[in-house]
């Protein structure tokens, strides 16, 4: 009888140490999460809604010569606003917190991006301001940042670039130059694992 009482007492202690059961998932305060979990390194499939109902877009920045996808808020879910949010996020660069976590941008500080045309799922971006003067690695990462960010939008599959209205060659991840439309697949090798 004494042995049964000990087993029952031990079972009650073990049950009391378990994780409580919940009917619904509970939100986690972002400030309570470890920093390594706050920065996603996987690709988003497009705009999503956060718990506040705010639309978000994906922008890519650089950590140790690899591209890392992050979220930025968008004012609405219209194609134009989503595209503008991506371009603005790229031009703004990483936040101070993200910089402290080792993120940088390969885009030149004076570079501006604007949409020239959108046809079907292909967009032409005009590059203005400072566009050169960096290493080939930085140029590949810069093009990859833009292409992976813009093609994360559901309405865009391809990106081409122009400068002063003239199509420009872009560096692929393997270092080859092309004037063909660029896709996310061309820069997948640059993603952080």
UniProtKB/TrEMBL annotation:
<feature type="compositionally biased region" description="Polar residues">
    <location>
        <begin position="38"/>
        <end position="52"/>
    </location>
</feature>
<protein>
    <recommendedName>
        <fullName>GerMN domain-containing protein</fullName>
    </recommendedName>
</protein>
<feature type="signal peptide">
    <location>
        <begin position="1"/>
        <end position="21"/>
    </location>
</feature>
<feature type="domain" description="GerMN">
    <location>
        <begin position="83"/>
        <end position="172"/>
    </location>
</feature>
<keyword id="KW-0732">Signal</keyword>
<feature type="region of interest" description="Disordered">
    <location>
        <begin position="23"/>
        <end position="52"/>
    </location>
</feature>
<dbReference type="InterPro" id="IPR019606">
    <property type="entry name" value="GerMN"/>
</dbReference>
<dbReference type="Pfam" id="PF10646">
    <property type="entry name" value="Germane"/>
</dbReference>
């Amino acid at each position: 009888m004494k042995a049964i009482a000990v087993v029952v007492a031990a079972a009650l202690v073990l049950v009391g140490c378990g994780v409580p059961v919940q009917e619904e998932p509970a939100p986690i305060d972002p400030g309570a999460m470890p920093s390594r979990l706050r920065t996603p390194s996987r690709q988003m499939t497009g705009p999503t809604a956060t718990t506040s109902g705010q639309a978000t877009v994906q922008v890519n920045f650089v950590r140790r010569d690899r591209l890392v996808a992050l979220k930025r808020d968008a004012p609405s879910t219209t194609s134009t606003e989503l595209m503008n949010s991506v371009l603005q996020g790229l031009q703004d660069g990483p936040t101070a917190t993200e910089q402290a976590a080792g993120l940088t941008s390969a885009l030149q500080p004076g570079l501006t991006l604007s949409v020239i045309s959108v046809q079907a799922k292909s967009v032409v971006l005009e590059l203005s301001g400072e566009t050169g003067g960096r290493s080939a690695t930085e140029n590949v990462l810069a093009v990859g940042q833009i292409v992976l960010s813009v093609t994360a939008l559901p309405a865009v599959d391809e990106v081409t670039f122009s400068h002063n209205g003239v199509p420009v060659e872009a560096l692929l991840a393997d270092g080859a130059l092309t004037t063909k439309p660029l896709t996310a697949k061309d820069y997948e090798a640059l993603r952080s694992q």
